[in-house]
Design a protein that fits this description.
By secondary structure, the protein is α/β, with parallel strands linked by helices. The protein folds into 2 domains: about 5-135 and about 290-319, Rossmann fold (3-Layer(aba) Sandwich); about 135-290, Aspartate/ornithine carbamoyltransferase (Rossmann fold). The chain is built from 10 helices and 10 strands. It has helices spanning about 15-30, 55-65, 90-95, 135-150, 165-175, 210-215, 240-245, 250-255, 275-280, 285-305; strands spanning about 5-10, 45-50, 70-75, 100-105, 125-130, 155-160, 180-185, 200-205, 215-220, 260. The strands form 2 sheets. The protein has a 5-stranded parallel sheet with strand order 1-5-4-2-3, sandwiched between helices. A 5-stranded parallel sheet has the order 8-7-6-9-10. The longest helix is centred in the C-terminal third of the chain and has 20 residues, at about 285-305. It is globular and about 60 Å long. The model has no long low-confidence stretch (mean pLDDT about 90). The structure holds aspartic acid.
C-alpha cells in the first residue's frame, strides 16, 4: 500500500484502505483522548495558515494539534510576507526551514496546491481551497454518517443547495461513492453542475419533496455568496430559496421523514433550514463538529508518520 500522502489536497489523494484506516484511528481518538505531557523540543510543530475566514475548521485543527501534543503555530497569513508578494512556495519553504513539520492551509483560491503534488515544500493539508475541495470536512462527515449506520451501501443522501460553489460537496462526491452511498443533488438549476460532469450514480432533481422522500440523510449547504463570481444570487433569491428548498421541521413531520440533517456550517437560519430544525435532535451539525477533532487528529497523525524524505526540496535539490 502507498504510504499516507504528504499533501492532502483532494479525496483523490487517498486510497479506500487509507480512508478506512483513518476512520479506525478517528474512532480510537474519539474514545481515548491522549493527555500530552509538558512541551519539549522533539514535538512536531504544526502551523495553520488560513487566508479565509473559519470558525470550525481552524479551531478543530488547533485543538487536534494540541491534543496530539504538537506545538501549534497560528501563522497569520494576513500579516505575513505573502502580503509583500512572496510566493506560496517560498512561504511554505520558509516555514519548513524554520522547523514546521506540517501546515494546514486554507485559501479562497481554488487549486493552488495542485502544483505541489510531486514535491511538496512542506507537508500540507488542504483546509478548503476556493470552490475546489475540503477533504477533511468530507472525511468527518463520512465518520458521522457511519455513526448512524455501519453499512452505508444502498443508502441515499440528498445534498441540498449551492452545489457548484461547495468545496465540501466536491469532496463528498468523490468520497461517499467509495462506501456505496447514493447521492441526490437538489436545488435550483443555477446551483447545479452540468449533467455531463455528474456520474450515473448521482441524480439531480429540482424537486425538494422527491429528494427528501428518496433519502436516508439530508445534507444542507449554505448559499456561498463569497464564492459566487458576481453577486447575482445575493438577496434576490434567499427568500425564494427558503420557500422552495429550505428544510423545515414541520414539513419533515408532515412528510413523516424525520431523518438526520447534516450541515458543514456555518448554517443560515431562515434560508437553508428553519430555527425549529436546527434546535431539533435531527440536526447533526454539532455532532459533525464534535467528530471533527478526532478525525483531524487521525489525519495529522497519519501524515506526520509517513516518513517522506522528499519534503522541502528546492529546485530539485535538498539543502
Ligand atoms: N465551512 C464549509 C467550507 O469551508 C462550508 C461553508 O463555508 O459553507 O466550505
Amino acid at each position: 500500500m502507498n504510504s499516507f500522502p504528504s499533501l492532502l489536497e483532494s479525496i483523490d489523494d487517498l486510497s479506500k484502505i487509507q480512508i478506512e484506516e483513518l476512520l479506525t484511528l478517528s474512532t480510537h481518538f474519539l474514545h481515548n483522548k491522549p493527555t500530552p505531557g509538558p512541551p519539549n523540543y522533539l514535538q512536531p510543530v504544526i502551523a495553520t495558515s488560513f487566508l479565509e475566514n473559519s470558525t470550525r475548521t481552524k479551531h478543530s485543527f488547533a485543538i487536534a494539534i494540541q491534543r496530539l501534543g504538537s506545538i501549534y503555530i497560528d501563522f497569520n497569513a494576513e500579516t505575513s510576507s505573502l502580503k509583500k508578494g512572496e510566493s506560496l512556495e517560498e512561504t511554505f519553504l520558509t516555514l519548513y526551514n524554520q522547523g514546521v513539520d506540517l501546515c494546514i492551509f486554507r485559501s479562497s483560491v481554488s487549486n493552488q496546491l495542485a502544483k505541489f503534488k510531486k514535491s511538496p515544500p512542506i507537508k500540507i493539508i488542504n483546509g478548503g481551497d476556493g470552490t475546489n475541495e475540503h477533504p477533511t470536512q468530507a472525511l468527518l462527515d463520512l465518520f458521522t454518517l457511519l455513526e448512524f449506520s455501519k453499512e452505508l451501501h444502498g443508502k441515499t443522501i440528498a445534498i441540498f443547495g449551492d452545489i457548484i460553489h461547495s468545496r465540501v460537496t466536491h469532496s463528498l462526491l468523490k468520497l461517499l461513492p467509495h462506501f456505496g452511498l447514493k447521492i441526490i443533488l437538489c436545488g435550483p438549476k443555477y446551483f447545479m453542475p452540468e449533467f455531463s460532469t455528474i456520474s450515473k450514480d448521482i441524480k439531480v432533481t429540482q424537486n425538494r419533496d422527491e429528494a427528501i422522500m428518496a433519502s436516508d440523510f439530508l445534507y444542507l449547504l449554505r448559499i456561498q455568496q463569497e464564492r459566487h463570481s458576481e453577486n447575482q444570487f445575493q438577496n434576490t433569491h434567499s427568500n425564494d430559496y427558503h420557500h422552495d428548498y429550505g428544510i423545515k421541521l414541520s414539513h419533515l413531520k408532515h412528510l413523516n421523514k424525520l431523518i438526520p440533517i447534516f450541515h458543514p456550517g456555518p448554517a443560515n437560519i431562515g434560508i437553508e433550514l428553519d430555527h425549529e430544525l436546527i434546535k431539533s435532535s435531527l440536526y447533526q451539525g454539532y455532532n459533525q463538529v464534535k467528530n471533527s477533532v478526532p478525525v483531524r487528529m487521525a489525519i495529522i497523525k497519519s501524515m506526520l508518520s509517513n516518513n517522506d524524505k522528499n519534503i522541502g526540496i528546492i529546485n530539485g535539490e535538498k539543502f
